[in-house]
Description:
The chain is mostly helical and 139 residues long. The protein has six helices and three strands; from the N terminus they run ααβααββαα. Helix 3 crosses helix 4. It is globular and about 60 Å long. The termini are far apart.
Amino acid sequence: MEFLLSKEVYEYLAEFRYQLRKFQKFSETAAQDMGITGQQHQLMLAIKGYPDRDYATPRELAERLQITHHSCVGLIDRCEEAGLVSRRKNPEDGRSVFVEVTEKGVGILEGLSAIHLEEIKRIGLFKEKLLDRNEESKI
């Protein structure tokens, strides 16, 4: 039987998946240690990290999180009840809302982001691009 991919390729892919899963587990544990769920952390990060602005619509967030719109609205509801995010009306379209991270949420997100950057540095991901840019912003 002839194989299309080498053993080395399968090992590389398996190691990649393993490292992704380890980082995901680290992230979930870190969020729990801060008193929130991994999904709540991901939602706040998706909002603060949204390109060119610090808010997003539920539809945009559902896409970023790769969940259904309905599931995203439920997550936003839970985060709002916990004081992590708030909604405000879209001034251009009364049918939609913008979701923002609250001061409480930003405090938690800052702490989580700092330990995530340390973990990324420790495991050697995104060395030049992300970490160098973060160091420059401190100057």
